[in-house]
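Troubleshooting: if your tokenizer reports a length mismatch, compare your output against this known-good record of 189 residues.
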Amino acid sequence: MNKTLPGVSTFIDNLANVQQARPQIPTYPKISTALANMVVSVLVGSAQPQAALTTAAQKVDQILSSGNSAEMTAPPTLLRRADGTGGPRGARREVPRRRRGVSEHIGGWLFATPATVIIVLFGAVPIIWSIVLSFEHVPLGSGGRFIGTANYRELAHDPVVRQAIGHTFIYTALFVPLTMIIGFSSPWP
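Known-good structure output:
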């Protein structure tokens, strides 16, 4: 890299510090190699996926059982500038906890707002409007007039409504248990 470009020397110096700051776990390359060999053997077609996975899992178990549990070294946390200064002021400043939590909540609400608006517009508004209309008499092509619970009283005495409710109960009583039996008795994938 050309160290004469602005910021490159700082980047190179900080890169060296980041490499020191990363936890040093000697088993990671060994595990990565075992998993990479498994993927390559499956892609090349020299092994079946299940057999390759079993072999890789056995190798990873061997690697982990031979490793030392205290292999992680404590990473240094300070990044230094190219001129040798740095420390806590040279590193990224920590955002106060209270402000950070508020901004995370605002971000979450901003992401959820479009879905919330759609659900309210196409879900809650029609439900509320249909409840309002159920208390009115609305002839086609004209405004409605409030009649209270007269529509519900008329439905209670209508034989077609009773028949429809009976069909719904029969359908539910047959459909739900049958689909559960079929679902639980089918072979697992």
